[in-house]
Amino acid sequence: MFKAILFDVDGVLVLSEPFIAEAGALMFGELYGVRVDPAEFTPFIGTGEARYLGGVAEARGIEIDLPLAKRRIYELYFKCIRGRMAAVPGAISLVRSLRAAGIRAATATSADRVKLDANLEAVGLLEKDFDALVCGNDVSRKKPFPDIYLEAAKRLGVEPKDCLVIEDAPEGLRAGAAAGCLCIGLSTTFPAEILLEAGASRVLPDLSGGLAALRP
Fold it and tell me: Which of 8, 131, 147, 168 is catalytic?
């Protein structure tokens, strides 16, 4: 039985992936005059905004000012999610049920802290709902490297093998598996077969089944 749950955030706690892609497309059009289809960001989901933007820029042969691009995509993202973003079904009740069950909880997202805070605030989750908040600012190597999950386990005082990772993206599942964690996929962003190939032990549509649905 796992002792802690390590939550990716985008696509796991909040249904945010369409909004960051929308903001990215707007940013490329505004700053670089390039029309980017939101689907072009899909291969880079879960890897943090630097790679998310940089990967599309490389594919398009565009040299971007990364600090400027990140600053602008966040400004656009915060506008995009205002009054529009929802929590993944079951996510809020699950997070708030864990303490009573004796299970520790942490976020483990490649996104910067400013985006993590905005995501949680948008759906009414609070820092105190978690035992630790770990994000892309806390590690030098983002997913698919295991660093974020190793750091989250360390902060919780739990061995990685005793942690359950919940992910919506292949790169995140690879990171969780590399850290030595059990991984469950959510098919909120990618189809189940892709998540299973990336290392998910099984795939759920959302978190509406609560803790019972996560147990082995």
Answer: 8
Mean pLDDT by 10 residues, the chain (216 residues): 96 96 96 95 92 95 95 96 96 96 97 96 96 97 97 98 98 97 97 97 98 92
DSSP label at 168? S
Is 37 a known active-site residue? no
Tokens of 200: 């998910």
Integer Cα distance of 87 and 208 in angstroms: 11
Does pTM surpass 0.85? yes
Distance (Å) of CA 214 to CA 98, 175, 186: 12, 19, 11
* Angle at the Cα of 159 from the Cα atoms of 158 and 160, rounded to 5 degrees: 115
The C-alpha torsion from 202 through 187 and 140 to 155, rounded to 10°, is -60
Inter-residue contact 203 to 196 (CB < 8 Å): yes
CA neighbours closer than 13 Å in the CB half-sphere of residue 167: 34
First vs last C-alpha separation in the chain: 7
DSSP assigned state of 40: G
How many Å apart are CA 141 and CA 174, to the nearest integer? 13
Using alpha carbons, list the distances in angstroms from residue 14 to 3, 139, 145, 198. 23, 22, 22, 21
Active site residue 65: no
State the DSSP H helix or E strand holding residue 155, giving kind and residue range, or none if neither: helix 147-156
